[in-house]
Design brief:
With 252 residues, the chain is an alpha+beta fold. The chain has helices at residues 2-102, 109-121; strands at 130-138, 144-148, 152-155, 160-169, 175-184, 192-196, 203-205, 210-219, 234-244. It starts with a helix and ends in an 8-residue tail after the last strand. GO terms for molecular function: copper ion binding.
């Protein structure tokens, strides 16, 4: 009986070997699966940390860029304000120099002779009507009432026109002033010729004095042939009056 038991136990061991092998294989597979899951988890942690660092760096970069843009915008706006203030003070002397060089505002003798020849030979364009609108402005420090005598005049290219502006000193002391002008649209400026103008001529107004300032001009007949001005039926002539301090230097 004992021998039979040994044989049975021996057979049992032989039969259990495949089962043990299968169990070991299963344990090995489970261990590898656990290792893979551990690797995946560690990879996920690394990716999360990297993603967090990237987001943090991007947010810092975006914040720094925004602050830099704000600083740059502030500096740019400050520079623009300073430049505009400088140009406002330099407008009169610079524009006066330009007119002296070109003869546009100040009526130099060669310009007058050229205009006289033009007037003698030009023909009026009867079928083209232009409305010239007169506007006036003054600097905030000017103590004068400055305005156009007429609101507008309808004329034709090749026709001479006389208009007036009125300046009144509202103070109890003399006032010296000077005027600049502008023409709109800008394309029409080269066809707008002033024969007589008070621009850049120093005007002295006694206390409470009121004067009429003449503007004698014509629109060149070539205006009617300019394709860029076919639809331009209005021209704006605008003057700006500045008071000049008697103790200060006169603009160049």
């Amino acid at each position: 009986m004992f021998s039979q038991f040994r044989i049975s136990f021996s057979r049992l061991r032989q039969l259990s070997k495949p089962i043990v092998s299968i169990m070991r294989l299963h344990i090995s597979l489970n261990s590898r699966e656990i290792q893979i899951k551990n690797i995946e988890f560690k990879t996920f942690l690394v990716q999360s940390k990297v993603s967090t660092l990237i987001r943090r760096n991007f947010n810092e970069y975006r914040y720094n860029s925004r602050q830099e843009n704000i600083r740059n915008t502030g500096l740019t706006m400050t520079a623009i304000v300073i430049i505009c203030l400088g140009l406002s003070y330099a407008a009169v002397p610079l524009y006066r120099i330009y007119c002296q060089k070109t003869g546009t505002g100040l009526m130099a003798q060669p310009v007058i002779e050229k205009l006289n020849k033009k007037i003698a030979t030009m023909n009026k364009i009867e079928d083209r009507q232009i409305k010239v609108i007169f506007e006036a402005d003054k600097s905030a420090s000017t103590a004068c009432d400055f305005r156009p005598t007429q609101h507008s005049i309808v004329c034709s290219p090749g026709e001479t026109v006389l208009a007036f502006y009125t300046a009144k000193n509202i103070l109890d002391r003399p006032v010296n002033g000077i005027a600049t002008y502008n023409i709109l649209p800008f394309e029409a400026a080269k066809y707008f010729h002033k024969i007589q103008c008070f621009c850049f001529e120093e005007q002295q107004l006694n206390a409470k004095e009121e004067v009429d300032l003449p503007v004698f001009f014509f629109i060149d007949p070539e205006f009617a042939r300019d394709p860029y001005l076919f639809d331009a039926n209005d021209i704006i002539l605008s003057y700006n009056f500045y008071e000049i301090n008697q103790n200060s230097k006169r603009p160049l």
